[in-house]
Structures are given as structure tokens and as C-alpha cells.
Amino acid sequence: MRSLCSSLGTAEAGSTVTLEGWVxxxxxxxxxxxxxxxxRSGLAQVVLPAGAAVPAEETTVRVTGTATRNxxxxxxxxxxxxxxxxxxEDAATPPAELWRPDLDVSLPTLxxxxxxxxxxxxxxxxxxxxAASLRGFRATLxxxxxTEVTTPKIVGTATESGAKVFPVDWFGREAYLAQSPQFYKxxxxxxxxxxxxxxxxxxxxxxxxxxxxxxxxxxxxxLGFIEDHRDVLAVxxxxxxxxxxxxxAEEQAVSRTGASxxxxxxxxxxxxxxxxxxxVGAPADEPDLAPEHERAVSAWAxxxxxxxxxxxxxxxxxxxxxxxxxxxxxGAGAPARATERSSNSFDLLFRGLELxxxxxxxxxxxxxxxxxxxxxxxxxxxxxxxxxxxxxMPPHGGFAIGLERWVGRLVGAANVREVTLFPRDLNxxxx
Amino acid sequence: MRSLCSSLGTAEAGSTVTLEGWVxxxxxxxxxxxxxxxxRSGLAQVVLPAGAAVPAEETTVRVTGTATRNxxxxxxxxxxxxxxxxxxEDAATPPAELWRPDLDVSLPTLxxxxxxxxxxxxxxxxxxxxAASLRGFRATLxxxxxTEVTTPKIVGTATESGAKVFPVDWFGREAYLAQSPQFYKxxxxxxxxxxxxxxxxxxxxxxxxxxxxxxxxxxxxxLGFIEDHRDVLAVxxxxxxxxxxxxxAEEQAVSRTGASxxxxxxxxxxxxxxxxxxxVGAPADEPDLAPEHERAVSAWAxxxxxxxxxxxxxxxxxxxxxxxxxxxxxGAGAPARATERSSNSFDLLFRGLELxxxxxxxxxxxxxxxxxxxxxxxxxxxxxxxxxxxxxMPPHGGFAIGLERWVGRLVGAANVREVTLFPRDLNxxxx
Lengths: 431, 431
Hints:
homodimer; alpha+beta; CATH 2.40.50.140; BirA Bifunctional Protein, domain 2; 2 domains; eight-stranded mixed sheet; 16 strands; elongated
């Protein structure tokens, strides 16, 4: 019966225990040999005679011996009088010493040797925060009456937005990898009212930046019967709070990564796009916030509202996808706005970086037909998508969170590739 | 403040309530007009004067009126003195009457009109069982110390198995859609010991059968430090029990779909492949169980063990992928077996259909190199994959469950397409 390393402290002193794991470190001293075993739960120390043969680091082993209290050992208990059985041939030397507290390697080395270097406890902990985030995301939405859905990643037409697509040879026909589940999650609001999906999305944009991947995980949410985008933002707030709670519960991983968790306020501060432009001193006709503007808006939210999160709403309609709902809120107390140019959209900034895009969508089929024609396109091209709207859809909206960006911000990674298990980009298709 | 249809019964009689949903049915009688509203929770009846204008079926509406007890109404409460506000123009007539108890349409109609026909309560309930299954799958594995992972769906080489692959144009280079996360989940056992992933897999096999899709959802599990494939089967048993429990909790959906839930025995009955061949009267040198043999083995398990589930183990090694571990169990009490020809594999049959494939994998890098060379291939081709093995891997194994087949069996669907939200196959890329 195997004991986990983390539970060794609960074994009766003097009892026989069996550990299974990797040789994390071996130290041959003059009078004793130490073997540190690593398993999914943590580390344990095994004491062997001086000169004992010990398998190479990273070899998998089964260790049987006596649980012995020793305040110097990790967890206060070590294994003595041990026999060590290697489960394979000796492992090759890793590209970095995994037992050192910090994994100090270049990004290319990290990525080329991902299968091995993710074993480093501090690196592995970064993904444990990703897994916890997924758990918190789903638990929150399940509690709010959402239904998980899965939508096709191969689509017959490439019409959703400006993002470039990857062509697929589909039994001799040209198809495309889905850039997002947008059209499908909207159609499924017609079925379930409230849906979410965690899945891969594919963007063939030849960006080589620290924040873009060609394949990433999108946490997609869509809900019906809303008043406007502020209802969507309220759900986003709850989702982020649930994700942070789930991450916080992973105490060991939070500590190993040095992650700094945001306090999620009861209400996320919101600033209108135009007010944000004025705040950062940008011209009033700028169509976008530049990265330095996003950082300045985040700094403002932190100073004024004590919040790591801030939503910018009301982006110019012309800069949003065709299905975006125009601005519909009265500017009570706010500067008058030209409603025809603004939209019921928002971007959520997390410590200076755009993390989430969301908003209200159109819901009348006549509005869709007009918006599609205004792009110079034929509504017939969108026939499958528009079917849902012809047959009755509620006012609705949603958002998408990029998992890698979220985790990257939590742990302060300089590049999203550092928190992606096997990243895909312009240059990388392996490992 | 909106009330859900299902909670109308808890509203104080005489209080004002607001419902939001779809016009499920309208009935103009001589003395009264009935409007049935459908939302994500269920149905509610609204009583209007004879001749009242009511939006077309499937139009979304907001209804405000008085909660009035009426034992004849669904849930014992209806809405009277109501005003009905349509949220869009009148909806187009659906391709089938969604208010009828059964959705009696042909498969092509169902698939062509998926965005609308999934709204039918009995059809929607099928997906609700899929969503519950996913919940039960993850909750069980989270409880067993597994870590959720995400692996790339675009890969640079197409080497895993015989299944045909879809080529992708990746920034001008040829890449492929992943046929399974097999190689990645194994590498991640080296990191996390126990991993799972729910994701799309892509099979370019030009089958046009009732049980194959070109894109489907694979529920993948892999775990380290096992004795052999029977440890994998024990985890599979717990996972299926967790999925059935989660499905059972969806009482309304179970009842609407008429799903028949299997009793998951504490231990799934296991029969060796050769004994299965003998049992069904097939020649001893058959390399596979034919579909009628699978049905016969399932019938035997039900008769002998009262189980809807049965595992067939020890398939011929030559018929399994190159990473399969050879047979290593003593045949205590069982017929002697030629160990070199049998494998530590299993297939799980669920009511006559293969639902899960699993087994133990090789774990020594030298075994991989030998197995790859035996296929006439160069181990260098598998360099990224073999990296994990060179640097130390435990004995491990895993399995994959096809979500659509699972749900299809639960509800007795004749074709997996009936339980897939937007299926993709040889002929279908839309909606």
C-alpha cells in the first residue's frame, strides 16, 4: 500500500511504508546518502548508508522502509532502513537541475524541454493554478444555472471576424479551424439560456508577441434575458471571484509560484471608453486603447478604487464585431455620448492587460441582416447562424477569458508561453 | 425581478410576477387564450382574454401578471391579468411543433435545424445528461488527485496510430489535427502523475456509420504508478459510477429522455479476449471481436453478473498501438496464454457497444525504441514524445471515453449524431 510523500508525517513511527515517485535529488555524503523522492503530493527524504547505489535523478523508484521521526526532514518524518527499487533504467540527466528552488532557464530551453521541465515544483505549480481556475470557473457557472456545451472546432465558413483562420483539408473540401465558439454559443442561448464552454480556439495571426498564441484556451460564457452588457459584467465578476477562490485554496501552489491574487470587488469599477481616453490624455477620436493606455487605466482603478480589475465600456461600434449591440444606456450623470457610435461592449483589464472581452449582442434577425449588409456581405452566407435568430432569441451577451493570459497575470509571467503546457505559435509545433 | 417558470409555485398567491422565456405554445379558445412560456427551468401557463394578441411560437417574451393558484396549471400556479411584451419581431414557424411531447423528425431534419430543434424539452434533456456526465467525470477524478490538463490540438507529425488525420495549413507548413491527446497525456504523467482532459479529437476516417464522428469529445485519463491495466480499470469503474451518479441527479432530464442508467458494480466483470472468443464461438485466431460478438459478450455479462458493463482484456498485442504494454499477469486459474501475443489492454463494453479503450503503456525508453523499430520506423521521429521516457517515467496507463457514445447508449439513441449538438462527419460541416 503506497503512501504519498505528503502523508508520511501521519504514518506511525516505526511502521513500514512504501513511497513511489521520482528521484528528485541524491546526495552522497561521507557518512550517509540522502535520497529525496518526489511524487504528486510533495517531497520525502530517504536515508541510506554511505556509498549506497542510488538511481540517477528523475528515475522512477519504489522505496520501502521504516517511517522515522526526524525534525530535520521535510514534514518531520523520513524513511530509514530502506530498499530502493528502480522502476526503469537510469534516467538521462535533465536539461536543468530540477531540485534547485528556482528553474533558471531561458524561454527556448523551457519550451524545447517542456516534458521534463514542467516537473520542476515551482513550474508545475503554475499549471496547478490553471487547473484550479478551470474548476472555479465551472463551479461558479454551474451554481448560476449555466449548462456546459461543446461546439465544433471545424467550421465550413470563415466569416466571424477579422482574425485570420487556419485552413483544414476536410475530406478534400476546404474547412477552417474555429476562431471562437461565438456563433455556436449564441445559438445555444436559444436552447439553454445560459451556456459555457472551455475549449481550444485558433488564431492564424502572424503575431510574435508575449501575449499571443496561435492556439489557446478560451473560457466562453453566454447568457440570455439580460438588460444590457452590465448584466454580463456582473456574471463575469462572480466568475472571476470563483476562480480566485479556487486558486487561493491551492495554498502550496500559490506559495510556490508567488502568485499575487487580486481582490475581486463586489462591483468591478467601470469607466466609459471616452472617459478612459480623456483620463489617459489620448485624442477623443482614438478608436482603441493602446497598451500604455490600458496600463494607465489600470493604475487609475487601483489608485481610485483599490481594484486590480477595471472594465472599460462603450467602445466604438465600428471597432467591434458586427453582432455587437449598440450603446443603449442613458448617460445619467455621465457625459453625453453619440449613441450611434458607441457599443454595449466592455473590455476587462487585469493589472494593465486586456484579459476579457465581452458585451451585449444583437438579438433581432432584422438587425443582423442590416449589420451584415452594412459590411457589404450577403446574409445568406450566415444562414445557419441566423436560423436561431429567425426562430426567436432573447437579448443576450457574453464574454471570453483567455486562460493563459489569466494565469500569466496571476503569477507575473513575462510571456504567456511560460504558463502554457505545450504552446503553439508562428514558429512552434513541438514538443 | 424575474421568476423562473419552475419557481412560480413558490410565489405568493396574488403577488406580481415577471416571467421571461419563449412562447412554447399558444392556444386561442373561444373563451380564453392560453400562453405557455418556456424558460431554462421548465414551463408556465399564462391566461389571457379570448382573442388576445399573442406573439408567434418561439418568440421571446416578458410576461408580467398575477400569480394565481390553479390545480389544473403546470406546477399548480398560473399567471393571470398578464401583459405580454415581445422582445423581438415574431419568430418564424419552427420546422417541427416544439410543444408536442415527442420530437418526431427525421435525422437530416434534426441536424439541419439543430439550432431550433435542440430547444425541444426532450431533445435538450439529452444534452443535459451529457453536461451532467462531464461534471461527474471531473468531480470523481478531482477527488482522486488528478490534475486537469489541456494539450495541443495541432501537431507537427502524424505518427500515433493508423487513424487518418486532417492536414492543416499552419502558416504555410503542413500540420495535423490531433487524433487524441495520447502522447501528451503520457508525458504529463511525468509531471502530475494523474491527469485528465476533456477535449475534441479528430478522425479523418471516411466511415459513415451510426457510431463514428469525424470530431468528437474524448474524456481522457492517464495515471502513473500502476501495477497493470487492472488498476486503470478500477479508476474507470469509479469514473463511470461518478458519471452515473451525476446523471441520476438530473431527475427531470432522466425522465424526459427515458434514459436507463446502468448499475455500476463494485468491480466490473472482466473476461480475457481468448475466453471471449471461445464464449461467442469465434475462431481462436480472430484478432478482433466483431460487433455481434461484443453484443454476445455483453449479454453474457448481464446474464452471469447482472452487469451492463463488461471489460474484455488481453487483446492481441499486434492489434494495439505500439506503446501498449505486453500481457504481464499470471493466469491464475485461467487458461495458459502466450504472453508474447497478448497485451495489458482492455475494451469496456456498455450494453453491447465498445465505449472505452484502455490499458497499460510501455514505460522504459528502450522498450519504446524497440517497438518503434519493430514498426520499421525511426525513433528519432518520436523525439519529443520519447523525451519524457528518457528522463524517467513510471509504469502507467489510461483510457478514453467517447462522450457521444456514452450519452447515446444511456438514452438508447440509434445514432451518435442524435446526441451531438452540432455533429461533424464526412458529409456535414454545418450548421
